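Internal tracking record. Fields below are filled automatically when a chain is submitted to the structure queue. Please do not edit lines marked as system-generated. If the sequence contains nonstandard residues, flag them in the REMARKS field before resubmitting.
Queue: standard
Priority: normal
Entity type: single polypeptide chain
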Amino acid sequence: MAELAKIVNGTDGYTANDCEGKTFVLTTDLDLTSYCAAQTDGNGVGGWTAIGTGGSNALAGTFNGNGHKISGLYINDTTSDYVGLFGCCDDASIYDLGLEDVNITASVQCCGGLAGGFYASDLTTTVSSCYTTGQIVNTYNGGEYDYGATGGLIGECSGIDNPRHVVITNCYSECDVRGNGYNNNVGGLISCALTSDITNCYTSGD
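SYSTEM-GENERATED OUTPUT FOLLOWS
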């Protein structure tokens, strides 16, 4: 997963966003606890760097979780725009993936356990059969025309029209979600959903 983040984010010699039309398949359960700890400083800041940190290097391919789960995701971030296992996704699809024991503390614009932001610029994009458990706290302070989006599964999802819209099916979140700060929208599953179809989904966290 860390290597996929480098591919999408364009670090360590990779070209940013070099994943359009490609499919990535998870072949086993993963525990990110040790990896995230190694990326954290003495004050607990750091942890996981999202796959797709912004619009210019968003995930644009397909991620097949293959029924597996990822545990131990830890993030403490006040400098990024998008925070989650995936940060910014545009014209992407993610399915059959579980995230357990998510622990996110942030002050960022878009924050979610699975993804900070999920968008459809040119294609119908899909999130299907995914779930999250754990806790998420985002203290982003927005402005009059600048809002925060904090969700247990996804912070913000937005399409343009049909067929360029986001489809979310058979997903749930059991994350405890907290959002403090001015104009910071909070949702148990998704904070903000525009031009999106959401079916057979639920949230049961606090």
